[in-house]
Amino acid sequence: MTRRALLLSCAAVAVVVAGGGAALAGSGSGVPEGTTVRAIDIGGLSRAAAVERLESAFTTERTSSISLVADEEALQLDPLKAGIDLDEQATVDRALDAGMVDRLMSRLGSERAVDPVPSYDSARLTAELERLKKGFDREPREGAVRFTPEGEPVEALPLTGRSLDVPRTISALQSSYLSTRVQAAAEITPVKTTAEQVRRVRDEVAAPAVAAPLTVDVEGDPLVVEPIDIAKALRLEADDDGKIEPRLEAEVLHERVSGKLRTVGTPAVNATFDVSSGKPVVVPSKTGMSLSAEDLAEAVRGVLTDEAPRRASAPLTVSQPRVSTEVAQGLGVREVIGTFTTRHPCCRPRVENIHRMAEIVDGYVLRPGDRFDLNGYVGPRDKARGFKEAPQILEGQFVDRVGGGVSQFATTLFNAVFFSGLKDITHTPHSYYISRYPPGREATVSFPLPDLVFENDSPHGVLVKTSFTGTSITVTFWGTKRFDEVRSITGPRTRIRDFGTEYVDREDCTATEGAEGFDIVVTRVFVDGGRELRREPFKTRYKPEPRFICGKPPR
């Protein structure tokens, strides 16, 4: 190119630039044409108009919940609560911050996209993420097989541990403004067990273990171990290497069948107390020949997963009493700490069952910290041990079963626990209210469930004494008083519900008049030195008891 041509070209460019500059100068201070913010056109608008358009255009986006995805779970974050918002002023400032070339290109029809400028309240955002973190974080859990209260095996699948990383999640949010789904940051802690492993243990170990009763031959005497006894003692949890090996807790299993152990060998006799003089006198303990906890567990382990009928054998060995004479002498059993009596009509089969259970429990001694499990100690109710058929509530109807009626003993025992101030672990009120019992302060039992369990949470021993007449049953606890008085406050009946009528076409049908259902709260009040120490509420909901009519419904 000649010098003359070069000079002419430069002159032309200067003319174009000068013309564009003049055009830009004439365009004012508005937003350049073709400028958008997330597809919202604010080109050509004044600053105030651009701010107003952004305020109205992003109303939904600014308030929509943000799904924070971590470990395949979505945590919902409210942007307003978290202090996340659109800074319209700063966004328009960014749009206005256009150079000469940008403005020139906008005049020539070119589009220019501007990112929205968010504002963050660091304190509020951190606080909201910390709140979500509490519900998200968890410790790692290895897989296991557990048992329902009824003894059914259920899988507890492994879960990885996890923890929401708040600082990294804040960074992810800041780089993804106006996104409704953001990948959060989390630390994941792996586990060693697998879901497949847990299911295999459930099917191949747990299910066979509780599929049927197991009979242990104890030198000629049969001892039946029920599936529920095995379920209560069997542990199927992962070890440090992630292996799930069956572990049978010998002492738990032994305690579960303790009521039956009296029928094999010559069991040791625990020390107890004679209170006939009005003052407790220790009755010495005796050693015996019985089945030890470890021998029982070893016998059961050997056939744990065998098909029914399962049989094993175990030897008798010298057994020591659970409560020795020396231990009993130091338990501090010196006075009545609580007693309760309930009454019943004379001479019915259920009365024999009540008295039989009272005889089995009479004289039992709890050391400090001991728990008494009524079903575990008494065992199944059967005719061989003196129990009779009598009505009991089963699935909402009155049916005849061996051992029916023993809930009256459970209710009497529970009230003795209540007024002695001992710790209630578990008790189950009747589904229908029975008028011979105090409302909200009664208990039902059947084998294996429902059960009644209480704990001697006092620093002294507790003696359980029972007595009965043809029309009453009494349970009395002896020990050392911790409270001057334990009171019962019965609240009003609420949520009254009417009853209906049902026809029962069954030979063992028991007709009833029906009764309303209701809710009630009974409060146990502990008083000592004239001062109220604490209160403990017991809430009970009774179903309406239908009016049962024996026979077929009318056509």
Task: Write a structural description.
It is a single chain. This protein is of the alpha+beta class and 555 residues long. It has three domains: 3-64 and 82-118, no CATH class; 196-327, Roll (Ubiquitin-like (UB roll)), CATH 3.10.20; 331-550, no CATH class. It has a four-stranded antiparallel β-sheet with strand order 9-8-15-16. The protein has a four-stranded antiparallel β-sheet with strand order 22-30-29-23. Strand 3 (66-70) and strand 4 form a beta hairpin.
List strands and helices in order, with pairings.
Elements lengths: L2 H24 L8 E3 L2 E2 L5 H11 L1 H5 L2 E5 L2 E5 L6 E3 L1 H9 L3 H8 L4 E2 L4 E3 L1 H15 L7 E4 L5 E4 L4 E4 L1 H9 L6 E3 L2 E4 L5 H15 L4 E5 L2 E5 L1 H7 E4 L9 E2 L1 H7 L15 E3 L6 E3 L4 E3 L2 H10 L7 E5 L2 E3 L5 H5 L5 E9 L5 H13 L2 E3 L4 E3 H5 L10 E6 L2 E6 L4 H14 L2 E4 L26 E3 L6 E8 L2 E8 L5 E6 L3 E4 L3 E4 L12 E12 L2 E12 L4 E4 L5
Parallel strand pairs: 1-6, 3-11, 13-20, 33-36
Antiparallel strand pairs: 1-2, 3-4, 5-7, 8-9, 8-15, 10-12, 13-14, 15-16, 17-18, 19-21, 22-30, 23-29, 24-28, 25-26, 27-28, 29-30, 31-34, 32-34, 34-35
